[in-house]
Amino acid sequence: MSVNTNNIQDSISTKELLREYSWYRNSFSKLLQEASDDFFTENFQIKFIGLSKNINCLLNNESCFVTKIKIDEEHDMFFRLTEKTIDVILEKVLGKSKNKFNINKISELEAKIITAFNGFIFDEIKPKMNKPDPKLLKRTNFDMINMTFILRDIDPENKSAGKIIVTLPLALLSPQQIKSSGKTFANTDFPDSEIFVKVIMGKMKFPLYEIKSLEQDDVVVFENSDIHKMQLSIQDELIDLNLNPNMDLLIPQEDDTEGENMAARNIWDSIEVEMNAEFDAVKVSLAELKSIEDGLVVDLTSLYDNNVTLKVEGKPIASGTLVIVNDRYGVKINNVIAKSKPSAPQGEESGNEESEQSFEENENYEEETSTTQSSTQPTGEEGEGEEDFDYSDFELDDDNL
After folding, report:
1. What span, in angstroms and rounded, lies between the C-alpha atoms of 69 and 79?
2. C-alpha–C-alpha distance, residues 222 and 17, integer Å
3. Which of 7, 118, 332, 354 could be disulfide-bonded to 79 (CB atoms 3.0-4.6 Å)?
4. Which of 305-344 are b and which e, b meaning 16 or more Cβ less than 10 Å from the residue's Cβ?
């Protein structure tokens, strides 16, 4: 919907146009569509899209074919068809031209078609207009209203469309305004109203080998987080959130003494991907939201009992509860969502025959020379219980390689 006002002539306010918009759309859309169907035999679709007092904001420097029609001795109305609109009409009526249409070189036949169409629309609209008041027949710069319509070919393969702007004198119209049928919303009700928001705890890059080895009761610490700050996400807009941390969430940090077998990792394991942690949507009153925007410290106690989801590339991989490790936020894993499937035991067929076949087709041909070697699965501790991590779930940027 497009509603505009002229800053110089302010006899029609934006609020009035908004309330009258439905009346104009319902009153004139059907009239123009019926005129088009009768004149062009249902070849075009016409849709009402705009209402304005200022004609300049509608045209956007587009060339137009203008038809002026005299209603009576004091009042005129105007039809403005953009160059694109005329091109769409003529292509449908006269066939596609070899040359690109130029409105400055319009032929007499083409002009007659457009003028006759405008006259046909006028005949449909005229009964909708009031008779002029004899007491108000002094010719002055009276108010005009501009209605904008989009005309397009009904053929779905033809995506071309253009604008038709119909200008009418307001003195001949009696637009109706929409009136509220229910109880209005008082300004005093706003502070207590609630809205759903997302709270983002933090984001950080982690190696893939750490992500694929997540298990229940593991603690993921976001080293770049701040226990006094988080971010609030409202319709993709981020607002800094100042918090009083709940130190009951503090847990001691344990040293990792198990050690890592670096030799067992490949280049894919070392690639880092960004993982973020966000809470389930929480309700915040507008009064609290205003306090957040003012930079005040807000105590959202509902966060501490809320579920935290870990996501990579927007895909959830694990969920858990919020904890504090030293002066950083972390997540204690309760559930691993993206749990990889263990490899099939020796002697049993894999449940995913297509993946197994795809893997065999891409093996080095030297390994394929031995049927016994390619069909024999590894035995011993190395082949038991290992998990295959599906890297195809994540999109990797060149910066990660």
Report:
1. 8
2. 52
3. 118
4. ebebbbbbeeeebbbbebbbbeebbbbbbeebebeeeebe
pLDDT at position 137, please? 53
Largest CA distance in the chain: 106
42-79 pLDDT, tens digit each = 999 999 998 988 776 667 778 899 999 998 888 889 99
Residues of each domain in the chain carrying CATH 3.40.1550.10: 2-172
Do the beta carbons of residue 342 and residue 314 sit within 8 Å? no
**Crossing angle, helix 108-125 and helix 83-94, to 10 degrees?**
100
Distance set, CA 152 to CA 63, 164, 195, 211 (Å): 18, 11, 40, 52
Orientation angle between helical segments 14-40 and 83-94, nearest 10 degrees: 20
* CATH superfamily to which 2-172 belongs: CheC-like (3.40.1550.10)
Rounded CA-CA distance 206/194 in Å is 35
Burial group, residue 121, by CB count within 10 angstroms (0-12, 13-18, 19+): buried
What is the pLDDT at residue 289? Answer: 79
Average pLDDT over residues 14-32: 90
Integer Cα distance of 124 and 170 in angstroms: 18
82-116 pLDDT, tens digit per residue, is 999 999 999 998 988 888 889 999 999 999 999 99
Which class for 198: exposed (0-12), middle (13-18), buried (19 or more C-beta within 10 A)? middle
Q: Return the structure tokens found at 334.
A: 């309760």
pLDDT in tens, 297-316: 766 666 666 789 999 888 89
| Angstrom distance (rounded) from CA 339 to CA 393 | 12
> Whole-angstrom Cα distance, residue 165 to residue 48?
10
Q: 247: closest CA among 174, 322, 184? A: 322
Q: Residue 37: pLDDT above 80?
A: yes
pLDDT over 70 for what percent of the chain? 71
Q: Where are the alpha helices (DSSP H) in 78-201?
A: 83-94, 108-125
User: Can you tell me whether residue 303 is helix, strand or coil?
Assistant: helix
Separation of alpha carbons 170 and 273, rounded Å = 62
Cβ-contact 320, 335 below 8 angstroms: yes
